[in-house]
């Protein structure tokens, strides 16, 4: 089940969560003998943790009343998971939480034993995370407020700026918040449309939590709904492009969600659905390899528009 050190920590966790735990239950949970449980308890006592025991039939253990444990006690795996999780906040578009993440990392380092501190430092020195160009910056306060509304099942009101339209006031019963393909989405019942809708958080502002409660549908899968609606967007263009670059060289450079990459000849076939062909054209230029557009024909028009903008910019530079 666990190595001995993990079992000792499990005993401690059980004692923290319960007023009293019997020796028989500890033995059953840890899959060891009652005598081995006694050794684990003795190990905790050697570490200065006041575990009290009651002998005889129905004997049990408990932590001394009033004893307060240190605020953080991690296994090696938990410490590494916490450190890695703190480092990935920027990659979720939550840049405003960077100072808090740095402070939490410092507290984690101060609290850990020397051996675990060395492991975490090795992680800091060895792991390099590269932010995806598809990640959209999101207001961390807005996200926190929205999550609280989801937890309390209260309706929210906000201004929403859809593409090419002025912001309008919306109200929604948000069932779930989803991070998908570099963006945060709120999914729930829209009172303006009287239907299930998704909202991008980077287009939301002036969010407030109302007192109107709601009951979310049981077992609702927001991620599945979001994937189905984004994939089936009626305004999306079917894109097919051949890239003069091996498939393995494109990994990490092309968003994999909603994109199909297959090896074809000496290059790679890219198939996708995209609503904004202008940004997709700019992305293709940034990949840094030759390519051939086969569909849609509207994508060729976007490249002509980009070429005209570049020519105008170059002319302005020469005249400056």
Provide the helix percentage.
Answer: 40-55%
List the total number of helices. Answer: 11
Average of the residue pLDDT scores: 83
Unreliable residue stretches: none
Indicate the overall shape: elongated
Strand arrangement in the largest pleated sheet: 7-6-5-4-8
The appropriate CATH architecture of the largest domain is Roll
Helix-strand category = alpha+beta
Distance between the termini: 72 Å
Work out the count of structural domains.
4
Order of helices and strands: HEHHEEHHHHEEEEEHEHEEHEH
Largest sheet: 5 strands, antiparallel
What do these coordinates show?
With 320 residues, the protein is α+β, with helices and mostly antiparallel strands. The chain has four domains: 60 residues, Arc Repressor Mutant, subunit A, CATH 1.10.10.10; 51 residues; 92 residues, SH3 type barrels, CATH 2.30.30; 79 residues, Alpha-Beta Plaits. It is 42% helix and 25% strand. The strands form three sheets. A five-stranded antiparallel β-sheet has the order 7-6-5-4-8. A four-stranded antiparallel β-sheet has the order 10-11-9-12, covered by helices on one side. Strand 10 and strand 11 form a beta hairpin. The chain is elongated. It starts with a helix and ends with a helix.
Question: What's the topology here?
Answer:
Layout: H1 4-17, E1 21-22, H2 23-30, H3 34-46, E2 51-54, E3 60-63, H4 76-87, H5 98-111, H6 114-126, H7 140-152, E4 154-160, E5 168-180, E6 183-190, E7 195-200, E8 204-213, H8 222-231, E9 237-243, H9 247-250, E10 259-264, E11 267-274, H10 277-287, E12 291-295, H11 298-319
Antiparallel strand pairs: 1-3, 2-3, 4-5, 4-8, 5-6, 6-7, 9-11, 9-12, 10-11
Helix pairs in contact: 1-3, 2-3, 4-5, 4-6, 10-11
